[in-house]
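Reopening this one. Same input as before:
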Amino acid sequence: MKNIFNPTHTAEILQRIDKLSPNSQPEWGKMDVAQMLAHCSAFQDIAMGNAFPTRSWLGVIVGGFAKPMIYNEKTLPHNMSTIPTILIADAREFATEKEKLKQKITTFQQNGPEKCTAHPHPFFGKLTPEQWGKGIYKHLDHHLKQFEV
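Same output, byte for byte:
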């Protein structure tokens, strides 16, 4: 399974982000491309320990059982619900969001597993740095596929 802590996998993700344009259209979902980039950036903030959304009651009940979906080989389902604090509905500026996300991905990868948050994921609960690395890659891959890159 690919992992964002692997420099080769990070480079692949960054190259795919560079293929996006302000006119990129989603295959599914409600976010436009700038909102998707902001959403992915907000998810990075959680993994980096810069944001601490509270754990949802549903996550407390079923998150542990569902946790493997974030780091296993299966693709994430389309239109999956998200953490409310990272649901982006307002207008965003494409170039700004693109650069912010690329910088956060690069910083996260360079900081390595040692600097990954120990704070629980708001739905899945406690994740190891390895699980975060796979989950970040899988989340980014999911949204890049959403925009056909």
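So the earlier flakiness isn't reproducible anymore. For the record, The chain has a mean pLDDT of 95.
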